[in-house]
């Protein structure tokens, strides 16, 4: 293992402040940085020595021998232990969990996001299959802390094995049910989970609390249970490595990876890169960002994807359709540049709105699209020959209703990933958005 680089910003809010210095010996679970505002404690994920404390990270040289033992957090109320453990939303958003579940729901809902919506990732589903009971205990702790009367686990219907494990685990739980989701993107978006489970469509500016609910990622539940039962700080992460890998292009799942492990080390664990490649993505195909081999993983790193090489558009004019469900305009421009295209037109999905100036785009109704013909007409008028889209399954479907008629050749921002992992390209929607529920929600 190379040096571990632990970033001081791994969550929503302000960066943490280091409380260690170069030369300090640390153990797994040693508190090394604390919040300066909204944030969460950060712990060493290894036994070792602090080599450097930089403005944005703490660099630790791990000892050759690593023990399983860790420094426990101090005991307190369940909520205090969640806060002390430094747990954040581990599905990608990174909001401090102690703040989120510290809300009194007055008998509302804990909604579990087990959608694992990004194609190719599998660590959430594998956790449910291998650690079902502790995951359910994490849910029950959340319900207790936030005064929720009901827990609902939102999971895609295709994950039949995981669903069977869940059904067995909750068979005697009257206040915990399962809600089956269709296999379309983005069923894991927070407001999509609320809409699917509770039938309430929130405005882009509203939080799930407006529906008397809190949405929690299933790995976050695991870390909550570990903090309360084992006094374990949050210093490890489950993740999937997939793509152009010598070990094969199926998902390589790694549990309890030390936070701060570099991308290169994770790819090597999976077998190493197979020949030339297009790019490396940290996160998922839709919402992830390009990264480098020396980049460190964080509490929110879910996936590392090595892709095939990009097609060459030879300078052809390109229109970009930016969607709240996919990459930002900057990400779309980066992909266009990597494909050797020239941007001549940019449009937003008609449902993508800015909750406030400069904020990330939000979709008015995630996964349900009224059509994109007007945007395709704009691209044609502006002289585009190709369009790159970053839309959800339904938006991509509506684009394909008009783009071919206008002789616009379409690439989805995920195409290079889907081709790498053998997944169908996002074009026409063939999966029904309706899903039959299990009897009695179980």
UniProtKB/TrEMBL annotation:
Keywords: 4Fe-4S, Electron transport, Iron, Iron-sulfur, Metal-binding, Repeat, Transport
Residues in RnfC Barrel sandwich hybrid domain copies: 4-56
InterPro entries documented for this protein: Ion_transpt_RnfC/RsxC, Nuo51_FMN-bd, Nuo51_FMN-bd_sf, PR_assoc_PrdC, RnfC_N
Domain of life: Bacteria
GO cellular component: membrane
Location of the NADH-ubiquinone oxidoreductase 51kDa subunit FMN-binding domain: 82-225
A Pfam family: Complex1_51K
Signal peptide (UniProt feature, chain positions): none
Keyword hit for tRNA-binding: no
Transmembrane segments: none
Keyword hit for 4Fe-4S: yes
GO MF term set: 4 iron, 4 sulfur cluster binding; electron transfer activity; metal ion binding
NCBIfam families assigned to the protein according to its UniProt record, in alphabetical order: PR_assoc_PrdC (TIGR04481)
Protein name: Proline reductase-associated electron transfer protein PrdC
Gene: prdC
């Amino acid at each position: 293992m190379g040096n571990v680089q632990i970033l001081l910003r791994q969550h929503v809010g302000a960066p943490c402040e280091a409380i260690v210095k170069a030369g300090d010996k640390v153990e797994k679970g040693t508190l090394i940085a604390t919040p300066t505002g909204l944030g969460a404690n950060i712990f060493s994920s290894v036994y070792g020595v602090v080599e450097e404390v930089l403005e944005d990270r703490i660099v630790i040289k791990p000892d050759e021998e690593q023990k399983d033992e860790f420094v426990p957090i101090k005991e307190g109320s369940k909520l205090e232990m969640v806060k002390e453990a430094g747990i954040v939303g581990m599905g990608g958003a990174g909001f401090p969990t102690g703040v989120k579940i510290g809300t009194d729901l007055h008998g509302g809902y804990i909604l579990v996001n087990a959608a694992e919506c990004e194609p190719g990732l599998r660590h959430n589903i594998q956790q449910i299959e291998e650690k079902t009971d502790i995951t359910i205990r994490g849910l029950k702790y959340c319900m207790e802390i936030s005064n929720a009367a009901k827990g609902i686990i939102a999971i895609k219907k295709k994950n039949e094995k995981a669903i069977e494990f869940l059904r067995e685990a909750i068979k005697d739980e009257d206040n915990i049910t399962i809600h089956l989701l269709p296999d379309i993107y983005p069923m894991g978006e927070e407001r999509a989970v609320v809409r699917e489970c509770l039938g309430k469509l929130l405005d882009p500016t509203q939080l799930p609390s407006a529906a008397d609910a809190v949405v929690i990622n299933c790995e976050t539940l695991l870390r909550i249970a570990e903090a309360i039962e084992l006094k374990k700080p949050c210093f490890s992460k489950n993740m999937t490595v997939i793509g152009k890998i010598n070990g094969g292009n199926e998902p390589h799942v790694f549990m309890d990876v030390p936070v701060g492990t570099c991308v290169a080390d994770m790819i090597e664990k999976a077998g190493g890169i197979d020949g030339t490649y297009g790019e490396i993505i940290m996160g998922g195909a839709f919402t992830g960002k390009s990264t480098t081999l020396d980049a460190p993983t964080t509490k929110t790193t879910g996936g590392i994807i090595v892709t095939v090489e990009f097609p060459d558009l030879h300078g052809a004019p390109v229109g970009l359709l930016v969607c709240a469900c996919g990459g930002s305009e900057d990400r779309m421009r980066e992909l266009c540049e990597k494909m050797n295209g020239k941007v001549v037109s940019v449009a937003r999905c008609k449902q993508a709105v800015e909750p406030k100036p400069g904020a990330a785009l939000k979709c008015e109704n995630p996964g349900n699209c009224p059509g994109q013909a007007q945007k395709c007409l704009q691209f044609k008028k502006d002289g585009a020959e190709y369009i790159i889209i970053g839309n959800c399954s339904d938006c991509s479907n509506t684009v394909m209703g008009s783009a071919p008629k206008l002789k616009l050749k379409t690439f989805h921002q995920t195409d290079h990933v889907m081709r790498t992992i053998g997944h169908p390209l996002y074009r026409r929607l063939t999966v029904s958005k309706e899903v039959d529920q299990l009897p009695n929600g179980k």
